[in-house]
Amino acid sequence: MRRPSERRVVLADVARLAGTSEATASRALKDDPRIGVPTRAAVRAAALKLGYVPNAAARSLRARRTHILGLLLDELSDPVHGKVAAGFEEAAAARGYAVFIMTGLHDPERERRALTAFLEHRADGIVLASCVSDPADVHARVAADRVVFVQPDYPALADGAEPPPRGVLRSDDPAGFAATVRHLVERGYERLAYVGPGVVSSDALRRAAAADAVASYGLAPMRYIDSGLDGWRDASTAARAIEEDPPDALICYDDKLALALLDALRATSLRIPGDVAIAGFDGILPAHQSRPRLTTVDVPSVELGRRAVEMLLATGRDGRLPSSEVLPVRLVVGESTPPRRARSAPEIVGQAVPSRRGASA
Amino acid sequence: MRRPSERRVVLADVARLAGTSEATASRALKDDPRIGVPTRAAVRAAALKLGYVPNAAARSLRARRTHILGLLLDELSDPVHGKVAAGFEEAAAARGYAVFIMTGLHDPERERRALTAFLEHRADGIVLASCVSDPADVHARVAADRVVFVQPDYPALADGAEPPPRGVLRSDDPAGFAATVRHLVERGYERLAYVGPGVVSSDALRRAAAADAVASYGLAPMRYIDSGLDGWRDASTAARAIEEDPPDALICYDDKLALALLDALRATSLRIPGDVAIAGFDGILPAHQSRPRLTTVDVPSVELGRRAVEMLLATGRDGRLPSSEVLPVRLVVGESTPPRRARSAPEIVGQAVPSRRGASA
DNA sequence: AGCGTCCGCGCAACCGATTGCACAAGCCAC
DNA sequence: GTGGCTTGTGCAATCGGTTGCGCGGACGCT
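The joint structure predicted for all components is written out below.
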């Protein structure tokens, strides 16, 4: 237990106790082969005895490497971002990097401040997950070989750019939505609708991907239902709009929204999935446990976080990041999108109020 | 866009451009009143023009303050921990602190390494959420006025210690479980069972709190059902055990487990809540959206994170942390615990659970 | 014995900011 | 004109490690 009066143990103390110079002590502690084995042992022992803890600030000041990685994301409490963060932290820790995490909350000003913090602390690498700022602004502040974009909302950073961008990592969301649409079409759904928050820019991409798929099947253009920004909490407005004019199936921006809708639609006369099928996106755990089980798309969120670290730390000798990557996604069919023609008996699964009757067959 | 050839801009460059010394430039940038207004403006302009970004390592080396806070938790992808992290990050950012987040994953060795990282980076404060290490070991490494324990699993750090501990922050879980038991008793449930992972140490506390409450109502001792460590993913084993000999109601360690059980019990002949009622704990979003809606206890997780920051930064002039705090929780009655008999019991929906603040008895 | 190597280690500069202290003006009063 | 003050700046030490370079001694070889 360190008393206020005791000064912090510094390298000089270790060196003194070990009977060497600071230089030797420093090298010994990092197992420099130029230092003899006995000396190394002596320094080790001294450090241990004194409870020496090197000062990272001093070290990185001289070494020009901080072993710090910065991660910027929207919301830590969001399951998807939480998984990205978990994968990121795990991979970083495994490689001996500490992780700065800051949240942007869709606020450009907060993002700017977060970036400033990363830069002041001289993070060795920065990962921007779903940032709302302009990548050009970002690149004006951060060297291109030090920043990786994960799930960028910017079409410009996606495919088709010339030259192929580096340092961009994302999951194949368009393919996921295409798979969802295909699944629905194969199951006999025709009038599809997309529900999303609108303002989030990745929403436009997902919606467009679904719309493209719908068009490719020759179906009528997909209806768009605005869930609003807080549709994740209160989806009742969207639920009423759906009740008024129910489509055959709903394609949701993400699982969080789908689950909120599932909940809100209980208050309507609609039976789910009997009257309206519903599909989500992300593959978060509650989606797999909901009732009915949600048809959704598993996104490798943890893997995204992990790969982001690997990309950052894999700059080749040309000092450039590996080229961009797209991680595959996987459609998971649940009970929320049953074959449409097969429905003959009334669905019980989607009933609104739990039964309080006695035992029933 | 910074080219590799351009050297990083340092304070000396700013000073040169502004025509002052480094000392003056440094003071000007932090609005030292001793520096004349024109000089301050000149330095400001020079810094802006050069795109100067101060080096946090150099600054904190000399200033002996890093403006870094460390947060150690079990799993970032866990909803509860995610909310704690979110509150923590938000409060820290608002006060100009950067946040190191590391995960322990219930592994003492990882926790040790995380603590080492915090210490090497000289974090101004450290928050340990649900760490599995011995607090004594922690205090041997970290000054007592620099670390806050959130939701400690250690009875020794809870109430009753003498002198009252400082730097301990938790929610009133015992009161929450007591409220759940009371609710179940009032609704006519008699044979209660507790389901938990067993090995997690906070499990013992929760179980004990529930058991105490059960005893206080003169009911038979509560049965214990082991969910296993990965009961959050696969609760089928526990579900089979429940089906074999169903209690009246299940009190679960947390919502995650309750939801998994809810899901697993669908594969049994039991109807929920008709045959067996079920209650969770934590108040995570999916619990409020599940079907049936889960009776649970809202825990102020975000607030825990926020308060942790405030406690860390509120050390008085005696250099000591504020005394420990217990945040109140709130029972939320859902559909998973309907009245069991015809006799109607008083509704206590949304009633706040009486809770004590501070460590004073 | 003489000479070239190699090994192990220390000197001192350096990373980039902060800060105690001193000093130079400018101003007033005597 | 000189002393006492205030005001605005600069010098240089300092924080705690890292690292280029050089030096002394042990060792091998002729």
